[in-house]
Amino acid sequence: MFYSSYIEISRSALAHNIAFLKAQLKPGVRFSSVIKGNAYGHGIEEFGQLAYTCGVDHFSVFSADEAYRLQQVLPHTATILIMGYIDDEELNWAITHNIEFYVFSLDRLEQAGKAARALQKPARIHLDLETGMNRIGLNTDDLERAAEIILKQPDAFEVVGVSTHYAGAESSENDDRVKAQLQRYHMAVRMLQQKGLTIRTLHTACSAAVMAYPETHLDMVRVGIMQYGFWPSPEIYQRYMGISTDRSDPLRRLINWKSQVMSLKVVPSGEFIGYGKSFQASTEMLIAAIPVGYAWGFSRSLSNQGQVLIRSHRAPVVGIVNMNVLMVDVTGIPDVSLKDEVVLLGKQGSEHITVASFAELSTQLNYELLTRLPLNIPRIIID
Ligand SMILES: *Cc1c(COP(=O)(O)O)cnc(C)c1O
After folding, report:
1. 369-379, pLDDT tens digit by residue?
2. Atom 10 of ligand 1, residue of closest alpha carbon
3. Residue 359 C-alpha to ligand 1 middle, in angstroms?
4. What does the domain layout of the chain look like in residue ranges?
Protein backbone atom coordinates (compact mmCIF):
# COMPACT_ATOMS: atom_id res chain seq x y z
CA MET A 1 0.00 0.00 0.00
CA PHE A 2 1.22 3.53 -0.73
CA TYR A 3 0.49 6.33 1.69
CA SER A 4 2.20 9.20 3.45
CA SER A 5 0.44 8.61 6.77
CA TYR A 6 -1.85 5.99 8.27
CA ILE A 7 -4.26 5.64 11.17
CA GLU A 8 -4.05 2.75 13.59
CA ILE A 9 -7.27 1.69 15.29
CA SER A 10 -6.91 -0.29 18.50
CA ARG A 11 -9.19 -3.29 19.00
CA SER A 12 -8.39 -3.67 22.70
CA ALA A 13 -9.15 0.01 23.37
CA LEU A 14 -12.55 -0.37 21.72
CA ALA A 15 -13.35 -3.56 23.64
CA HIS A 16 -12.40 -1.72 26.83
CA ASN A 17 -14.60 1.31 26.06
CA ILE A 18 -17.60 -0.81 25.11
CA ALA A 19 -17.29 -2.79 28.33
CA PHE A 20 -17.15 0.46 30.32
CA LEU A 21 -20.19 1.89 28.53
CA LYS A 22 -22.25 -1.29 28.86
CA ALA A 23 -21.46 -1.30 32.58
CA GLN A 24 -23.31 2.04 32.84
CA LEU A 25 -26.51 0.40 31.53
CA LYS A 26 -29.05 -1.81 33.23
CA PRO A 27 -29.10 -5.38 31.90
CA GLY A 28 -31.19 -5.67 28.76
CA VAL A 29 -30.63 -2.11 27.53
CA ARG A 30 -29.46 -2.35 23.95
CA PHE A 31 -26.26 -0.66 22.80
CA SER A 32 -26.29 1.00 19.40
CA SER A 33 -22.95 2.09 18.01
CA VAL A 34 -23.21 5.46 16.26
CA ILE A 35 -20.92 5.50 13.26
CA LYS A 36 -21.98 8.55 11.26
CA GLY A 37 -19.24 10.89 10.00
CA ASN A 38 -17.18 7.92 8.76
CA ALA A 39 -17.33 6.45 12.26
CA TYR A 40 -16.12 9.80 13.68
CA GLY A 41 -13.17 9.57 11.34
CA HIS A 42 -12.23 6.02 12.29
CA GLY A 43 -13.49 4.50 9.02
CA ILE A 44 -16.99 3.01 8.70
CA GLU A 45 -15.93 -0.34 7.28
CA GLU A 46 -12.95 -0.87 9.57
CA PHE A 47 -14.68 0.35 12.68
CA GLY A 48 -17.99 -1.42 11.95
CA GLN A 49 -16.31 -4.79 11.57
CA LEU A 50 -14.19 -4.23 14.64
CA ALA A 51 -17.19 -3.24 16.77
CA TYR A 52 -19.05 -6.32 15.56
CA THR A 53 -16.23 -8.54 16.76
CA CYS A 54 -16.48 -6.70 20.11
CA GLY A 55 -20.11 -7.83 20.44
CA VAL A 56 -21.93 -4.81 18.99
CA ASP A 57 -24.83 -5.80 16.73
CA HIS A 58 -26.74 -2.52 16.36
CA PHE A 59 -25.42 0.42 14.36
CA SER A 60 -26.82 3.90 13.80
CA VAL A 61 -25.73 5.90 10.76
CA PHE A 62 -26.77 9.25 9.35
CA SER A 63 -27.57 8.45 5.73
CA ALA A 64 -28.29 5.65 3.28
CA ASP A 65 -24.83 5.79 1.72
CA GLU A 66 -23.29 5.10 5.13
CA ALA A 67 -25.78 2.29 5.71
CA TYR A 68 -24.81 0.82 2.36
CA ARG A 69 -21.08 0.89 3.13
CA LEU A 70 -21.69 -0.77 6.48
CA GLN A 71 -24.06 -3.37 5.11
CA GLN A 72 -21.38 -4.54 2.64
CA VAL A 73 -19.06 -5.60 5.47
CA LEU A 74 -21.39 -6.80 8.23
CA PRO A 75 -23.28 -10.09 8.60
CA HIS A 76 -27.06 -10.00 8.30
CA THR A 77 -27.45 -10.45 12.03
CA ALA A 78 -26.40 -6.81 12.53
CA THR A 79 -29.13 -4.19 12.65
CA ILE A 80 -28.53 -0.93 10.78
CA LEU A 81 -30.56 2.19 11.54
CA ILE A 82 -30.52 5.35 9.41
CA MET A 83 -31.13 8.34 11.70
CA GLY A 84 -31.08 11.01 9.03
CA TYR A 85 -31.10 11.34 5.30
CA ILE A 86 -32.62 8.84 2.93
CA ASP A 87 -34.16 9.73 -0.41
CA ASP A 88 -37.16 8.13 -2.04
CA GLU A 89 -35.13 5.79 -4.24
CA GLU A 90 -33.03 4.68 -1.31
CA LEU A 91 -36.21 3.74 0.57
CA ASN A 92 -36.69 0.73 -1.72
CA TRP A 93 -33.18 -0.44 -1.03
CA ALA A 94 -33.57 0.05 2.72
CA ILE A 95 -36.86 -1.84 2.95
CA THR A 96 -35.57 -4.69 0.78
CA HIS A 97 -32.49 -5.10 2.99
CA ASN A 98 -34.23 -4.78 6.38
CA ILE A 99 -32.50 -1.47 7.03
CA GLU A 100 -34.37 0.51 9.66
CA PHE A 101 -34.85 4.24 9.33
CA TYR A 102 -36.17 7.31 11.14
CA VAL A 103 -39.41 8.85 10.00
CA PHE A 104 -39.54 12.52 10.91
CA SER A 105 -42.16 13.79 8.48
CA LEU A 106 -45.54 12.66 7.21
CA ASP A 107 -44.20 12.88 3.70
CA ARG A 108 -41.47 10.34 4.49
CA LEU A 109 -44.08 8.11 6.12
CA GLU A 110 -46.31 8.19 3.04
CA GLN A 111 -43.36 7.46 0.75
CA ALA A 112 -42.25 4.57 2.95
CA GLY A 113 -45.77 3.14 2.97
CA LYS A 114 -45.95 3.36 -0.80
CA ALA A 115 -42.58 1.64 -1.23
CA ALA A 116 -43.50 -1.06 1.31
CA ARG A 117 -46.77 -1.87 -0.44
CA ALA A 118 -45.01 -2.14 -3.80
CA LEU A 119 -42.34 -4.41 -2.32
CA GLN A 120 -44.88 -6.30 -0.18
CA LYS A 121 -42.50 -5.99 2.73
CA PRO A 122 -43.01 -3.80 5.79
CA ALA A 123 -40.88 -0.71 6.29
CA ARG A 124 -39.05 -0.98 9.62
CA ILE A 125 -39.45 2.52 10.99
CA HIS A 126 -38.56 4.56 14.04
CA LEU A 127 -40.81 7.53 14.70
CA ASP A 128 -38.48 10.40 15.54
CA LEU A 129 -40.14 12.95 17.78
CA GLU A 130 -39.77 16.68 18.04
CA THR A 131 -39.40 17.28 21.75
CA GLY A 132 -37.56 20.59 21.87
CA MET A 133 -34.42 20.48 19.76
CA ASN A 134 -36.31 21.95 16.81
CA ARG A 135 -34.16 20.26 14.18
CA ILE A 136 -36.00 17.28 12.73
CA GLY A 137 -38.80 15.24 14.25
CA LEU A 138 -42.59 14.81 14.20
CA ASN A 139 -44.50 17.35 16.23
CA THR A 140 -47.62 16.36 18.18
CA ASP A 141 -50.15 17.05 15.41
CA ASP A 142 -48.08 15.19 12.84
CA LEU A 143 -47.66 12.34 15.25
CA GLU A 144 -51.38 11.76 15.69
CA ARG A 145 -51.78 11.78 11.95
CA ALA A 146 -48.79 9.39 11.62
CA ALA A 147 -50.39 6.94 14.04
CA GLU A 148 -53.57 6.93 11.93
CA ILE A 149 -51.65 6.34 8.71
CA ILE A 150 -49.73 3.46 10.26
CA LEU A 151 -52.79 1.83 11.83
CA LYS A 152 -54.62 1.93 8.50
CA GLN A 153 -51.85 -0.07 6.79
CA PRO A 154 -50.59 -2.61 9.32
CA ASP A 155 -48.82 -4.64 6.62
CA ALA A 156 -46.79 -1.68 5.38
CA PHE A 157 -45.13 -0.68 8.63
CA GLU A 158 -43.33 -2.21 11.50
CA VAL A 159 -42.87 0.45 14.16
CA VAL A 160 -39.60 -0.73 15.63
CA GLY A 161 -38.92 2.26 17.80
CA VAL A 162 -39.67 5.78 18.90
CA SER A 163 -36.75 8.16 19.29
CA THR A 164 -35.73 11.69 20.10
CA HIS A 165 -32.44 13.54 20.48
CA TYR A 166 -31.43 15.97 23.22
CA ALA A 167 -30.38 19.53 22.55
CA GLY A 168 -27.21 19.56 24.63
CA ALA A 169 -27.09 16.82 27.28
CA GLU A 170 -23.35 17.48 27.62
CA SER A 171 -23.84 20.66 29.63
CA SER A 172 -25.85 21.22 32.82
CA GLU A 173 -26.73 24.63 31.38
CA ASN A 174 -29.32 22.75 29.31
CA ASP A 175 -30.66 20.69 32.20
CA ASP A 176 -34.20 22.08 32.18
CA ARG A 177 -34.41 21.75 28.42
CA VAL A 178 -33.28 18.11 28.48
CA LYS A 179 -35.71 17.20 31.26
CA ALA A 180 -38.59 18.89 29.46
CA GLN A 181 -37.68 16.95 26.32
CA LEU A 182 -37.83 13.63 28.17
CA GLN A 183 -41.20 14.55 29.64
CA ARG A 184 -42.63 15.47 26.25
CA TYR A 185 -41.22 12.27 24.83
CA HIS A 186 -42.98 10.13 27.42
CA MET A 187 -46.27 11.96 26.82
CA ALA A 188 -46.03 11.37 23.10
CA VAL A 189 -45.21 7.69 23.57
CA ARG A 190 -48.23 7.31 25.84
CA MET A 191 -50.41 8.92 23.20
CA LEU A 192 -49.14 6.49 20.56
CA GLN A 193 -49.78 3.53 22.82
CA GLN A 194 -53.28 4.75 23.63
CA LYS A 195 -53.98 4.94 19.92
CA GLY A 196 -53.07 1.25 19.74
CA LEU A 197 -49.49 1.24 18.45
CA THR A 198 -47.09 -1.31 19.88
CA ILE A 199 -43.55 0.04 20.19
CA ARG A 200 -40.67 -2.28 20.92
CA THR A 201 -37.75 0.06 21.43
CA LEU A 202 -37.76 3.42 23.18
CA HIS A 203 -34.48 5.27 22.67
CA THR A 204 -33.28 8.80 23.34
CA ALA A 205 -29.79 8.81 24.88
CA CYS A 206 -26.49 9.85 23.27
CA SER A 207 -23.14 9.54 25.12
CA ALA A 208 -23.68 12.56 27.37
CA ALA A 209 -27.18 11.43 28.34
CA VAL A 210 -25.90 7.93 29.10
CA MET A 211 -23.53 9.45 31.67
CA ALA A 212 -25.59 12.35 33.01
CA TYR A 213 -29.21 11.17 32.76
CA PRO A 214 -29.67 7.47 33.53
CA GLU A 215 -33.44 7.93 33.28
CA THR A 216 -33.01 8.46 29.53
CA HIS A 217 -31.56 4.98 28.86
CA LEU A 218 -34.95 3.27 28.31
CA ASP A 219 -34.64 0.28 25.92
CA MET A 220 -31.63 1.35 23.88
CA VAL A 221 -28.87 3.98 23.89
CA ARG A 222 -27.10 5.45 20.85
CA VAL A 223 -23.47 6.00 21.70
CA GLY A 224 -21.03 7.81 19.43
CA ILE A 225 -18.09 9.79 20.77
CA MET A 226 -17.42 7.78 23.95
CA GLN A 227 -16.88 4.45 22.23
CA TYR A 228 -13.99 6.14 20.39
CA GLY A 229 -12.49 7.08 23.75
CA PHE A 230 -13.47 10.77 23.89
CA TRP A 231 -15.74 12.54 26.35
CA PRO A 232 -18.65 14.58 24.97
CA SER A 233 -17.51 17.57 27.06
CA PRO A 234 -15.03 18.40 29.85
CA GLU A 235 -18.03 18.79 32.15
CA ILE A 236 -19.21 15.19 31.65
CA TYR A 237 -15.66 13.98 32.22
CA GLN A 238 -15.20 15.98 35.42
CA ARG A 239 -18.57 14.90 36.71
CA TYR A 240 -17.69 11.26 36.20
CA MET A 241 -14.25 11.66 37.78
CA GLY A 242 -15.91 13.31 40.78
CA ILE A 243 -18.10 10.29 41.49
CA SER A 244 -15.56 7.63 40.51
CA THR A 245 -13.20 6.11 43.06
CA ASP A 246 -10.60 5.43 40.38
CA ARG A 247 -8.48 8.46 39.46
CA SER A 248 -7.73 7.47 35.88
CA ASP A 249 -9.72 8.11 32.70
CA PRO A 250 -11.82 4.97 32.09
CA LEU A 251 -11.81 5.53 28.32
CA ARG A 252 -9.02 4.74 25.89
CA ARG A 253 -8.39 6.39 22.54
CA LEU A 254 -8.52 4.09 19.55
CA ILE A 255 -6.62 6.28 17.14
CA ASN A 256 -2.92 6.68 16.48
CA TRP A 257 -2.22 8.77 13.41
CA LYS A 258 1.30 8.20 12.18
CA SER A 259 3.70 9.29 9.49
CA GLN A 260 7.47 9.51 9.19
CA VAL A 261 10.30 11.97 8.77
CA MET A 262 10.65 12.74 5.08
CA SER A 263 13.56 15.19 5.14
CA LEU A 264 15.98 16.75 7.63
CA LYS A 265 17.68 20.07 7.20
CA VAL A 266 19.94 22.35 9.21
CA VAL A 267 18.69 25.95 9.03
CA PRO A 268 21.11 28.75 9.95
CA SER A 269 20.19 31.32 12.58
CA GLY A 270 18.22 34.27 11.19
CA GLU A 271 16.58 32.35 8.30
CA PHE A 272 12.81 32.23 7.83
CA ILE A 273 11.25 28.76 7.66
CA GLY A 274 8.56 27.84 5.14
CA TYR A 275 6.22 30.19 3.29
CA GLY A 276 6.29 33.81 4.40
CA LYS A 277 7.86 35.20 7.51
CA SER A 278 5.79 33.64 10.28
CA PHE A 279 8.79 31.79 11.74
CA GLN A 280 12.39 32.94 11.97
CA ALA A 281 15.16 30.72 13.35
CA SER A 282 16.73 32.48 16.33
CA THR A 283 19.56 29.93 16.50
CA GLU A 284 20.79 27.21 14.15
CA MET A 285 17.95 24.69 13.98
CA LEU A 286 17.37 21.12 12.82
CA ILE A 287 14.07 20.99 10.94
CA ALA A 288 12.20 17.82 9.96
CA ALA A 289 9.64 17.82 7.16
CA ILE A 290 6.62 15.49 7.56
CA PRO A 291 4.53 14.49 4.51
CA VAL A 292 1.19 15.54 6.04
CA GLY A 293 -0.63 18.85 5.64
CA TYR A 294 -4.05 20.42 5.65
CA ALA A 295 -5.13 18.29 2.68
CA TRP A 296 -4.88 15.40 5.14
CA GLY A 297 -6.83 17.03 7.92
CA PHE A 298 -3.88 18.56 9.78
CA SER A 299 -5.39 21.98 10.22
CA ARG A 300 -3.61 25.04 8.93
CA SER A 301 -4.58 26.70 12.19
CA LEU A 302 -1.95 24.50 13.86
CA SER A 303 0.74 26.52 12.06
CA ASN A 304 3.39 27.54 14.64
CA GLN A 305 1.13 25.96 17.29
CA GLY A 306 0.70 22.21 16.95
CA GLN A 307 3.06 19.49 18.11
CA VAL A 308 3.96 16.00 16.92
CA LEU A 309 5.90 13.20 18.61
CA ILE A 310 9.27 11.96 17.36
CA ARG A 311 11.48 9.58 19.38
CA SER A 312 9.06 10.04 22.28
CA HIS A 313 9.68 13.80 22.38
CA ARG A 314 7.35 16.65 21.51
CA ALA A 315 8.39 18.53 18.41
CA PRO A 316 6.66 21.88 17.75
CA VAL A 317 5.31 22.78 14.33
CA VAL A 318 7.29 25.66 12.86
CA GLY A 319 5.99 27.87 10.11
CA ILE A 320 2.79 27.48 8.15
CA VAL A 321 1.20 24.05 7.68
CA ASN A 322 1.26 23.46 3.90
CA MET A 323 -1.16 21.45 1.81
CA ASN A 324 0.93 18.26 1.97
CA VAL A 325 3.87 19.08 4.23
CA LEU A 326 4.49 20.40 7.70
CA MET A 327 7.78 21.21 9.40
CA VAL A 328 8.76 20.61 12.99
CA ASP A 329 11.68 21.67 15.15
CA VAL A 330 13.75 18.64 16.20
CA THR A 331 16.84 20.57 17.27
CA GLY A 332 16.80 19.30 20.85
CA ILE A 333 15.80 15.70 20.10
CA PRO A 334 18.74 13.24 20.05
CA ASP A 335 19.40 10.97 17.06
CA VAL A 336 16.50 12.02 14.84
CA SER A 337 16.86 10.25 11.48
CA LEU A 338 15.07 9.97 8.18
CA LYS A 339 12.05 7.62 8.33
CA ASP A 340 11.67 7.99 12.07
CA GLU A 341 8.08 7.39 13.12
CA VAL A 342 6.09 10.59 13.65
CA VAL A 343 2.91 10.54 15.73
CA LEU A 344 0.42 13.27 14.79
CA LEU A 345 -2.27 12.03 17.17
CA GLY A 346 -1.99 9.37 19.84
CA LYS A 347 0.82 7.85 21.85
CA GLN A 348 4.55 7.37 21.50
CA GLY A 349 6.52 6.22 24.53
CA SER A 350 5.12 8.05 27.52
CA GLU A 351 4.03 11.12 25.56
CA HIS A 352 0.73 11.58 23.80
CA ILE A 353 -1.02 14.09 21.61
CA THR A 354 -4.74 14.08 22.36
CA VAL A 355 -7.36 15.37 20.00
CA ALA A 356 -8.57 17.50 22.87
CA SER A 357 -5.27 19.38 23.18
CA PHE A 358 -5.07 19.53 19.42
CA ALA A 359 -8.63 20.83 19.44
CA GLU A 360 -8.06 23.42 22.14
CA LEU A 361 -5.23 24.85 20.10
CA SER A 362 -7.27 25.05 16.97
CA THR A 363 -10.49 25.81 18.89
CA GLN A 364 -12.37 22.86 17.48
CA LEU A 365 -14.27 20.16 19.23
CA ASN A 366 -13.18 16.53 19.25
CA TYR A 367 -16.16 15.65 17.07
CA GLU A 368 -15.15 18.06 14.34
CA LEU A 369 -11.49 17.23 14.25
CA LEU A 370 -12.04 13.48 14.16
CA THR A 371 -14.59 13.59 11.39
CA ARG A 372 -12.31 15.75 9.27
CA LEU A 373 -9.69 13.00 9.08
CA PRO A 374 -9.87 12.23 5.37
CA LEU A 375 -11.36 9.03 3.99
CA ASN A 376 -8.27 8.21 2.00
CA ILE A 377 -5.84 7.83 4.88
CA PRO A 378 -5.64 4.06 5.39
CA ARG A 379 -7.03 2.70 8.66
CA ILE A 380 -5.11 -0.24 10.07
CA ILE A 381 -6.44 -2.42 12.87
CA ILE A 382 -3.99 -3.20 15.65
CA ASP A 383 -4.62 -5.01 18.92
C1 LIG B 1 -24.64 11.77 16.80
C2 LIG B 1 -25.87 11.26 17.40
C3 LIG B 1 -25.82 10.45 18.53
C4 LIG B 1 -24.52 10.12 19.26
O5 LIG B 1 -23.98 11.25 19.89
P6 LIG B 1 -22.65 11.18 20.77
O7 LIG B 1 -22.61 12.46 21.49
O8 LIG B 1 -21.50 11.06 19.82
O9 LIG B 1 -22.77 9.99 21.64
C10 LIG B 1 -27.01 9.93 19.01
N11 LIG B 1 -28.18 10.21 18.39
C12 LIG B 1 -28.28 11.00 17.30
C13 LIG B 1 -29.60 11.27 16.68
C14 LIG B 1 -27.12 11.54 16.78
O15 LIG B 1 -27.20 12.34 15.70
Report:
1. 788 899 889 99
2. 206
3. 19
4. 10-243, 255-353
Asked if the domains 10-243 and 255-353 are classified in one and the same CATH topology, the answer is no
Task: Please say if 275 is a catalytic residue.
Answer: yes
Fold of 10-243: TIM Barrel (3.20.20)
Measured in angstroms, how far is the CA atom of residue 301 from the centroid of ligand 1? 27
- CATH superfamily of the domain spanning 255-353: Lyase, Ornithine Decarboxylase; Chain A, domain 1 (2.40.37.10)
Q: What does each C-alpha distance from 95 to 60, 128, 352, 372 come to in angstroms?
A: 16, 18, 45, 31
Rounded to two decimals, the pTM is 0.92
Collect contacts of 210-217 with beta carbons under 8 A, ≥24 apart.
Answer: 210/21, 210/24, 210/25, 211/24, 211/236, 211/239, 211/240, 212/169, 212/170, 212/172, 212/236, 212/239, 213/169, 213/178, 213/182, 214/24, 215/182, 216/166, 216/169, 216/178, 216/182, 217/25, 217/26, 217/29
Assign 246 a pLDDT band (cuts: 50, 70, 90): confident
d(CA 233, CA 222) in angstroms, rounded, equals 17
Helix axes 44-53, 64-73, angle to 10 degrees: 50
**18 close to 54: Cβ distance less than 8 angstroms:** yes
Is residue 185 part of the annotated active site? The answer reads: no
**Digit-coded pLDDT (tens) for 316-369:** 999 999 999 999 999 999 999 999 999 999 999 999 998 766 666 555 567 777
Counting residues of the chain whose pLDDT is more than 90, the rounded percentage is 86
The pLDDT score that the predictor gives to residue 357 is 66
Q: Which residues line the annotated binding site for substrate?
A: 135, 323
- pLDDT tens digits for range 77-94: 999 999 999 998 999 999
Ligand 1 pocket, mutate which of 17, 47, 59, 83 (most atoms under 8 A from CB): 83
